[in-house]
Amino acid sequence: MPRTSASKPSRRAALLEFAILGLLHDGPLHGYELRKRLTTALGIFRALSYGSLYPALRSLVEAGHISETEPAEPPLAGKRARITYELTAEGKEHFQDLVAQSGPDAWDDDDFDVRFAFFSRTEAQVRLRILEGRRSRLEERLANIRDASQARRERMDAYTMALQQHGEDRAEREVRWLEELINAERRGTGTPAGGEPSTGADSTTYLSSDDSTHPQTETKKIKE
What we know:
Elements: H1 11-24, E1 29-30, H2 31-41, H3 50-63, E2 66-69, E3 84-87, H4 89-99, H5 109-117, H6 124-152, H7 158-187
Antiparallel strand pairs: 1-3, 2-3
Helix pairs in contact: 1-3, 6-7
């Protein structure tokens, strides 16, 4: 049964559900394989526990977005049955609605990382709006870092200054990376994350479920 507004998931839970739908878009998976792909491909989920994954799967089943299939043969003694999860037609439609969104939430650190991982399933104009929004968010952050550094420079020790500089350098690198992606989208040749140019903006190959290479994703972790 579809969720009511009263049972709407938290932003973090919604992000996990979005990632699950995205991975299942490529085909059915069981819980173990889903967790493996989430923890290896998306930095935000590197510490994802089954205690967080299975409630998310149950929520998606109850919403009608995925279905579950029990194995034909019973599991061996002491082993848990590997239930296979598959995207439903309603789930595919829901996922397409989600990837079409490009509001401010998609520009934040964790949301952007996950959204970027599924850019190959996102319309070109939506990708461009998200990239431009993310760049704007990073430029604002960079300006704040510089202002804070200038105001407190005389009171900072060498280690604090080094940390401040590290934050500034990281923000600058991501802004440059975003500029490259934005320019590629506008040219319609998309060359993201060091990849080869594609034949068009709509066929751009972004992060797959097996790769994670952009400046922000490499350092992200969440404790479950």
